[in-house]
Amino acid sequence: MNPLRALIMAAARNEAVRSLVASAPISRDVVRRFVAGETTQDAVAVTRELGLPVTLDYLGEDTTDEAQAEQVVRAYLELLEALHAAGLASKAEVSVKLSAVGQALDESLALTNASRICAAAGQVGTTVTLDMEDHTTTDSTLRVLTELREQWPWVGAVLQAYLHRTLDDCKSLSGNGSRVRLCKGAYAEPASVAYTDPHEVDLSYVRCVNALMAGDGYPMFATHDPRLIEIIGERARWYDRARDSYEYQMLYGIRQAEQRRLGARVYVPYGEQWYGYLMRRLAERPANVTFFLRSLVSRS
Ligand SMILES: Cc1cc2nc3c(=O)[nH]c(=O)nc-3n(C[C@H](O)[C@H](O)[C@H](O)COP(=O)(O)OP(=O)(O)OC[C@H]3O[C@@H](n4cnc5c(N)ncnc54)[C@H](O)[C@@H]3O)c2cc1C
């Protein structure tokens, strides 16, 4: 991990920093730039305002007990119901972290809980994508994906280009009906399993783009990187891919004009547990930290 990023993540774990940031009202522009809000209503309102397809993430990682996992499932069920009631379900899917629904406690609990979310999504006519977390969870997440796809073949998964294994995973998941979201990867991974040089990660991303474009699945390219976006467009022409046979995805608050130009799907996080997510976004781009600190000082 680059030293500045490591420093920001270390500061983020400091209790004084946490309480300063976490006590900032959610309405502050800086938090709102990256997070839709804390409630289901906030998530639905942002979905309506954006006017782009979205994937909604209820923020809640590293669930340590069954009650907490149950609360996350209920939040997703409430969200899907609210999207349906607002007539927005066809353009809004959900992203789920298996760790939030009990993966660390028991894989079968995560499978049961994810199944409940998939059943509700299917009922309102939308889809679910499983986020990918650190490499120790990849095999378990792909096992759960395989089980879920038996009943709901449209369930998607994220693959991370920084992992050495990902080209093979892309090939296995490039068949008809398969939905794969390809990203660079956001966790601090050891060199034994991941490319650590950013250029190597980009090269791996392009190899994975080729594997997914050559297949019959529906690739979802999650990146803000202008060079990769150009290569994806060029590869789509090479593989004669219709524009509706793949999509671009970007995070809420990042490169909004480009999101509109590409008609990208926007990953919209919401929920009370926004602190960790916000810190990861700030660490990705240290220029954001200056913006953030200025805003904390000027509005407190
Ligand atoms: C839809 C979506 C879902 C994702 N799901 C996962 C997941 O399940 N698991 C996982 O490990 N990772 C996930 N990620 C995160 C991803 O792995 C990267 O960490 C993140 O997208 C940054 O990589 P990048 O491809 O945009 O390239 P980068 O090289 O990091 O960025 C390229 C350019 O994008 C802009 N940019 C990037 N990040 C920021 C930022 N925080 N603030 C402002 N500008 C920025 C800058 O202009 C930068 O130069 C997801 C990303 C997206 C878009």
TrEMBL record:
A GO BP entry is: L-proline catabolic process to L-glutamate
Which Enzyme Commission numbers does its entry carry? 1.5.5.2
Q: Where does substrate bind?
A: K97, R280, R281
Known pathway = Amino-acid degradation; L-proline degradation into L-glutamate; L-glutamate from L-proline: step 1/2
Known catalytic reactions: L-proline + a quinone = (S)-1-pyrroline-5-carboxylate + a quinol + H(+)
Proline dehydrogenase domain span: 45-291
Protein keywords: FAD, Flavoprotein, Nucleotide-binding, Oxidoreductase, Proline metabolism
Key word Nucleotide-binding present: yes
Broad EC category: oxidoreductase
> Which cofactor(s) does the record list?
FAD
> Could you tell me what this protein is called?
proline dehydrogenase
